[in-house]
Amino acid sequence: MGETQRILKPKGLLPSSTRGAERDLLRGALAVLQAIPNLEIKQVSTESREADRGLDFNLLLSFGQKKFKVAAEAKASGEPSVLRRSAAWLKNLLASTKYDYAVIIAPYISTEGASICRDLGVGFIDLSGNCLLSLDGLHIERTGYPNKFKKPREVQSLFSPKSSRVIRCLLSDPKRVWTLKGLATETGVSIGLIHRIATALENNFFAKKELRAFKLEDPARLLEAWREEYYRRAPRWARYVIKAASIKESLTRLKTAALHHGVRYAFTGPSGASLISSYLAPTGVHLYVDILKEEFLEEVKANQVSSEGNLLIGVVEQENEFIGSRQVKGIYVVSDLQLYLDLWAIGGRGQEAAEELRRERLKF
């Protein structure tokens, strides 16, 4: 890394319509640009023509005798998944309009994110000191500066058992605008905790608060943050072996025994997903229950083993995994959100199946 350059505070350059997080991102990016010798910012605007509809900012820069029209996108997150989508969109924009260059502005962009931008021919500026600009006669690249905005404990707390009830509710209807009171009523979580969750979501650019209401800004990144924490905490499964001619027979026998003995149940993992679509050929059964009764295990003739096994049972302690469960072909299956998390936690091909489920059913 090189020495940190002196940052000048930009004056009179921000469009009057720019607000909140976008304003902060743009202000930081302009400060970086102003610190570059011989580079001058001629104009900043939010005007968008038909061909570049949805673009956040237009920058007119000059370097020596040359002028450059630059398309700029402000992103609350510089996660690789966000950068891939934005950089690809900007690349297409450059090919179809008269812009000379495009940059993404974010709080932090990692070395992986920098590679994504570089490969697609798009520049970036983050507020942590990293940047890539490649104009005619000017090339600046700085990477490796640490994330100034990382708040791991705060993010992890969003996915604790009680808080995750709120996250689950938000992601189940990601376009909905919520009041704190309405969300508390919907989830059964205290208004105080709801307020802390809303603040944490806004601090980490997952959501945006407006007066007493708020809505998600980036449900895709929130889901990805949840799945990583879920993977880290990987559910504990009790392992059993049962004899059955097929997965279908196993599901039927387990359902029948659960109903017979008053056990609440819902299937998940590859076996649960197989009732929805052929994402992944199941070789065993993942089953959530609210209580594990000996008579239930005896009826299905399940023998516990220390490893492997073709029946994995998880006992649900706070009902979270049951939220949103529904009947599919007469058998209870967890919600698409829970199914996604459990498939991802399996790893390998389970993650491929999770992403296919996400594209087809979650759609964010």
Textual characterization of the structure:
The protein is α+β, with helices and mostly antiparallel strands and 364 residues long. It has three domains: 20-142, 3-Layer(aba) Sandwich (Trna Endonuclease, Chain: A, domain 1), CATH 3.40.1350; 152-232, Arc Repressor Mutant, subunit A; 234-362, Beta Polymerase, domain 2 (2-Layer Sandwich), CATH 3.30.460. Helix content is 40%, strand content 22%. It is built from 13 helices and 17 strands. The radius of gyration is 25 Å and the shape is elongated.
* Contiguous runs where pLDDT drops below 50 for at least 5 residues: 1-19
Q: Main beta sheet, described?
A: 7 strands, mixed
- In whole angstroms, how far apart are the ends? 36 Å
Which of globular, elongated, flat, extended, rod-shaped describes the shape? elongated
Summarize, please.
It is built from 13 helices and 17 strands.
